Amino acid sequence: MNRIAGIINLDHEQDVLSELTYFRCGAAVPFGGRYRMIDFTVSNMVNSRIESIAVFARSKYRSLMDHLEQGKAWDLDRKRGGLFILPPDWNDPSDISRGDLQHFHNNIDFLNRTAANYILVSGSQHICNINYQDVLKEHQQNDADVTVIYKRVDELTSEHQLAQKLDIDEFGRVETIHNEHFNPHVYMDMYLIRKDVLKELVQNSIAHGHTNFFNEAIKGKLHMLHVHAYEYEGPHALVNSVESYFRNNTNLLNAEEHAQLFKDDAPILTKVKNEAPSKYLQGSNVKNTLVANGCVVKGHVEDSILFRGVKVGKGAVIKNSVIMQRCEIAENAVLENVIIDKDCNISEGKTLIGAPEKPFVVAKRQSM
Fold first, then answer.
1. Is this prediction's pTM over 0.90?
2. Which listed residue, of 55, 325, 344, 365, carries a Cα 20 to 30 Å from 144's Cα?
3. Cβ atoms of 151 and 129 closer than 8 Å
4. Strand, helix or coil for residue 284
């Protein structure tokens, strides 16, 4: 039996996107015109024939629950398996677990009930399009206890400084995991592990008072476990700062990069919302821009991303910006290098200008 179950572990993902994570966790942040960050993780799992997925969420998960619902958009609203959003619920008085081990301990029924004998654990900050069946095949060929997934990044940028890196021997075995900045082997916060090994390591880690399963039970035991490294060679973006969020969104304006990430045979799925087609009124001018459904454009928009339902007034100018759902940009406003969160109103004649390396950010539901 070669079934895989999925765990999306958000416990150690900090709210690093400033105003964008005031009211939501990072996994729920909108991305790419019509998606959320977590859509890529869930879609990758579903496209890899993973039918049972648990989400470990600790805080600010209301928006996440509203978006995922019962998993219908990913065909996960099913009688067997499906999508399980598992917020913290520590009711066991004998529970001594801490950190993300609390999730594994208190949701052990998810592991016990799934028919899968492999578990794929992933975060949400690495945007990619990956087939985990390929990872499973290499995992079995190497008879590994754990297979960690990495991306070779030859041009490291600021977001890679805090990412963990791998030292790998000639046989693909992981020797060390560290934070050395100049190492190109960027660990993607994804690993495949046999279910029996996972359960054993969880019990051992709790008994020893550990708080971070990967760092202490896997990274800390490389000398005891056979940890294999799988190289992912497809499109990849790491979003762990406002700057990396802005840059990786606007990178999608490159047609080649967009096509590599959004594949016809491995689609990125999201919650469906019924919107009318976008309207471009007389006098509007739109260049090199991703425009989602339901937008009404009367002004000038260039090198930008407009999410669903954005309204751009006559004479308004938007350049190199990300404008999220249902924002209204009044007449003659000027926006350049900005990120506007959902449901914001920018008043007539208002000018907001940031820098490409440090965009100006407006939090959700603000009027300016």
1. yes
2. 55
3. no
4. coil
